[in-house]
Structure formats: structure tokens, C-alpha cells
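pasting for the record
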Amino acid sequence: MSALAKIDSDKIRKEIQELTGRLRELKDEGEHKIIRLTNRVFLVQKHELYLKWKDPATSKFYTSFDQWIKAEIRESRASVYRFLGVKHHLVNVSDETLEKIGSSKCFELVRVAREKPAMLPRFLKDLEKDPDIPLFTIQQRVVNTLAGAHPDSGRYDRIEFAVKSEDSPYVFKALAVIQAIEAVDNPDTAAGRGTHLVSILQDYLSGMEQTKILKKLEEAGAFSKSAFAISEE
């Protein structure tokens, strides 16, 4: 029997799926745990609690916050310092809310708090209603808001496609020209989203030959999944 025949492909696939799922869970958990850790470290800093503790290595009392954090936070020290800055900008947001939001989304909220503070309550309200809003969607809303647009409450999909390396400069240059001509001042501009690409594809699908093929594919159930649904609004 060959080595390949001895491999249980279904078992391997199941294990990969389980490991992938677990890693995703750990990443999500880490998003919240780092903020909880930072909240506790902030209390230590604020009330100088470190002065009550001794360094296990020297048996001497800590004399500064930085001395304590270097000795006991170690690997997470850089992350904690970074999030102490987050708390500074989101000072009016409760610790519980920050923990629920997660680290990556908090960084996006800091950008809003710094440049468009009046819009911060809107973002917090949206996250309260739907805490599972994808990070990419939040990032797109922040970009639109900082560019002067009203925040878009819709969701976004990230679409990737490949082009030859020698052709990619045309793509980047075209996008740069579009954004130079039409600044991102509202969420529906070509520069604001990929609406220029959507327009091209809509025109393409309206062609006589393309319409025939599209109809046949639809009748065959090629677009039965919800991801292919097209809004008529």
C-alpha cells in the first residue's frame, strides 16, 4: 500500500478546520484580553499601586511605573503602552465598552476621536447595535468620515483580483488620478468606494451577448447563493 493510500484525507481536513477555527477564536479573544489587561494596568498607573509591590528578582520595592511594567508585563509591554494611548483618546468610553469593541476597532475609533470627535458617538452607537461589524467595514467608514463624508452604515466586501505585474501600474495610476480629480468627500464618489469598477461591470453585464449568458447561468442556478443577490435600490 502506498504512503498516500494510508493518509486519511477527511481526518486531516477536519483537523485543519478545527485548528483554523481555534486560532481565529484565540485571535478574537486576544483582541479583548489586551484591552482588559490595559485597563488594569491603567489603574496601577493611576493609583501608583506598583509602589506597594516588590520586584521578584531583587526583592526591592518598585520605584517607578516603568520599572514595574518592564519587570512584570514583559511581552505585552509594547501593546499595553500603545493602548494606554487609546484610553487617553477614548477617555469618556467605559472600560467595559472598550473591552467589548476589541483592540483593532478601538484603534480606528481613536482616529475618529482625534480628527472628528463629534462623530465618535455615532460610531459607538453603531458598534453597540452590532458588535460583530467586520473590522474592514469600520475602517471604510472611518476613511469616509475623516474625508468629510457622512459615515456609511452599510457593510463592505473586500474584493481582490490579480493582474499582470507589468499592468498593475495602470491600475495604481488610474486610482491616483481618480482621487486627485474627485476627492473622497462623500461615500458614493468613485474615489470613495469602488463605484467606478461597479459602473464598468454594470455596463459590461448590460451587453446583448452578456445578458444572454447571464440569463442562462441564472436559470441553471449559478447564482443561487445570497452573495450573488443584486439590490434593485
